Request: fold
Amino acid sequence: MQARRSRAGRASAGRRSRRSRQTRGLEALRETRGPDEERGRKLVIFAWSGDLDRVWATLILATSGAAMGMQTTVFFTFWGLFPLVKNDVRITGDNWMQKMLSLMDRGGTEHLKLSKMHFAGVGPRMIKRLAKDHKVASPTELLEMARDMGVNLVPCQMTMDLMGLKREDLVEGLQEPAGATTALLEAQDAITLFI
Amino acid sequence: MSTTLTSLDLKGLSCPLPIIKTAQALKLLPSGSLVEVLATDPGSVPDFTAWCRSTGNTLVDQEDQDGVFRFVIRKR
Reply:
């Protein structure tokens, strides 16, 4: 009993000293590291949605992250891959199902639909006009800015195969297509958002 | 330390453009450069403060004149 208590006492003393070492360590790190090397200097966004309103948010956050000096990566997966299709590409896919998909859900930043109040295309036209009046950058401009600012734009290989999208269907300046493991590995020490 | 003041007129632009244009402009300037930014987006006041804190640049001066927000930033 006595021995156990003293062991417990030693253990808790050990924990305390470990904790204080950790606290000192963090303070020391904060002192020695510049703002660019602090934790949370990486941003990873999983862009799953192809909706205009969500893609807008994705690109605003990605460009802002890059402007803050964060190492920023956007993984475009599932519906989120369609905004990367070139605006002048009309039909994509190899088989009739993939072709139907591209017919019904045209890719490209200029052809995105609103998640609500779409009203057969009237909604996006109004929002785009409002955005222009208020000098809010369009998704097309933001995507270009993101690329220029060094944001890693990574298309999901599986979605490309599934939807029949080829590299030549997608805009220039993307990273090599990758999978979920690459995405999760990149996200390990980053702020992550699923949009 | 450089004493020439680069001026950026970002009046009328909305979030996140004032920050992005400033970040892009600062990239081309040497450390210690002074940049004056003029913006009309009220959100740019908290945004520039946060941006300077996170990037390590210094917000030397900030004032509000007739709806125009003026920021003076020193690049780190």
